[in-house]
Design brief:
The chain has helices at about 15-30, 75-90, 115-125, 140-160, 235-240, 255-260, and strands spanning about 5-10, 30-40, 55-60, 70-75, 95-100, 130-135, 165-170, 180-185, 190-195, 195-200, 205-210, 215, 240-245. By secondary structure, the chain is α/β, with parallel strands linked by helices. The chain has a single domain (about 5-185, about 225-260), classed as Stationary-phase Survival Protein Sure Homolog, Chain: A (3-Layer(aba) Sandwich), CATH 3.40.1210. It is globular and about 55 Å long.
């Protein structure tokens, strides 16, 4: 595979182990890597943008492979990719990669995910983009995910994606030899027991802390345009498969359009 120009971002921050493992793995494989990440963790920020204050970017040295160019950005994950594409890079990258996130981005989680939103910024510019997440909040098994990213890039170079498609990839937090395989999946539905704990600060003023707990995937209706035997990402990751879910930013509901057109 010829060396690629790659832009990396995340929502865990510039110092996170996941993005450092990914950047160093890709750089050692001969690719040209630029990293632009938030200066602190910005998880679950969705597709938020910074509009009411300046965005600052500073070079980061020493913590990445010597060939990696890294920037710390004061903005959100989406800000990071926008800034990189519009101001920091001289030419568009061949791919935008976001992650490797500490924790899965499955089912309806993608609606809140800064990881997915950063990659979606690349997709919106018609740049092939991938969101990568390790399905654990505690494991450090990032090399498994980083190695798969190399394989995936090689495949996508030979078999390019159609325009404006984002791949949401989740990798089980296990050794490579334990991975059951790779499955193309559809987006599932995650259910949470939402709980806001009421707490009090040292001055006695109350505040609330979101402490929701994930439960098993709820049963979901069949997809309008996909065969019922295609598993959901939530199902497949549970069986130790790497999941690849193609996403799009166009949220138009085809069935809803057809139904409304009967009346309007």
């Amino acid at each position: 595979m010829q060396p690629l120009n790659l832009l990396l971002s995340n929502d865990d921050g510039i110092f996170a182990q996941g993005v450092r493992t990914l950047a160093d793995t890709l750089a050692k494989a001969g690719h040209h890597v630029t990293v632009v990440c938030p200066d602190r963790e910005r998880s679950a920020t969705g597709h938020g943008l910074t509009l009411h204050q300046p965005i600052r970017a500073n070079p980061v040295d020493s913590i990445y492979h010597p060939s990696v160019t890294a920037w710390s950005c004061s903005g959100t994950p989406a800000d990071c990719v926008k800034l990189a594409l519009s101001a920091l890079l001289e030419t568009p990258p061949d791919f935008v990669l976001s992650g490797i996130n500490q924790g899965s981005n499955l089912g309806t989680d993608i609606l809140y995910s800064g990881t997915v939103s950063a990659a979606m910024e690349g997709t919106m510019e018609n740049i092939p983009s991938i969101a990568l997440s390790l399905a654990s909040f505690t494991s450090s098994e990032f090399p498994t995910a980083a190695q798969f990213s190399l394989e995936l890039l090689g495949d996508l170079t030979q078999h390019p994606l159609p325009g404006y498609v984002l791949l949401n990839v989740n990798i089980p937090a296990i050794k490579p030899e334990q991975v059951a395989g790779v499955k193309v999946t559809r987006q599932g539905i995650c259910r949470y027991i939402e709980q806001f704990e009421k707490r009090f600060d040292p001055r006695g003023k109350s505040y609330y802390w979101l402490a929701g707990e994930a439960v098993e995937e709820i049963e979901q209706p069949p997809h309008t345009h996909l065969p019922p035997d295609i598993p959901t990402d939530v199902q497949a990751i549970r069986d130790n498969y790497i999941t690849i879910t193609p996403l799009q930013y166009n949220l138009t509901d085809v069935t809803g359009v057809q139904k409304l057109m009967e009346s309007w």
